[in-house]
Task: inverse folding
């Protein structure tokens, strides 16, 4: 049965389309498989190649620099030998060494025979005589004594500065202390009962 309408341009366009009504032609999934293959295989290979190329580019300058630098032994053999007297430090002592080797002018004063520098000396004074006690301690140190202790003294006797010593072994030191402090022999007394903890005890009075 022929159509009662003549074929026009719309009929020709409709005949050229693949879609007929609500149905469409089945599309190929080849492009999807190609993309998946590129992601799984080609992309890792491409990344590995880029990293390998960068590493080789970094190692090339370092290798060239190492090969170009001479070894230590070659440098030593190639360097000219220094003259026999060149570079040898002077054997004359420096000014600082001379000062350190020179004995100090403020040496410890020598004590008389029989007087030990480490004699145990106990300086005792009341609260009002502390400054005088310190002066006497400094005086004894200046004369060579090194073992001096100080303490507070609360008793009333003696009335003047007195040196007490334990026995004959400390007599020479006690007499020298009395001489240093300008004391007469009456104020240098052997008294073991007073100097029990120390060899020599000095009670300081003004």
Result:
């Amino acid at each position: 049965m022929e159509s009662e309408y003549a074929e026009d341009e719309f009929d020709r366009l409709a005949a050229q389309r693949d879609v007929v009504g609500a149905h469409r032609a089945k599309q190929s999934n080849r492009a999807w498989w190609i993309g998946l293959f590129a992601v799984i295989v080609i992309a890792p290979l491409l990344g590995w190649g880029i990293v390998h190329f960068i590493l080789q580019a970094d190692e090339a300058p370092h290798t060239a620099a190492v090969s170009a630098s001479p070894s230590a032994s070659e440098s030593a053999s190639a360097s000219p030998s220094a003259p026999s007297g060149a570079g040898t430090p002077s054997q004359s002592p420096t000014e600082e060494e001379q000062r350190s080797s020179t004995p100090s002018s403020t040496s410890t004063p020598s004590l008389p025979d029989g007087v030990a520098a480490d004699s145990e000396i106990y300086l005792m004074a009341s609260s009002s005589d502390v400054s005088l006690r310190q002066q006497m301690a400094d005086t004894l140190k200046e004369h060579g004594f090194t073992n001096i202790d100080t303490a507070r003294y609360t008793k009333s006797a003696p009335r003047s500065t007195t040196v007490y010593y334990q026995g004959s072994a400390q007599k020479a030191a006690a007499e020298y202390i009395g001489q240093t402090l300008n004391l007469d022999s009456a104020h240098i007394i052997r008294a073991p009962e007073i100097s029990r903890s120390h060899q020599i005890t000095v009670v300081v009075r003004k």
About this structure: The longest helix spans residues 30-68. DSSP finds six helices and five strands in the chain. The CA atoms of residues 112 and 176 lie 8 Å apart. The first strand starts at residue 121 and ends at 125.
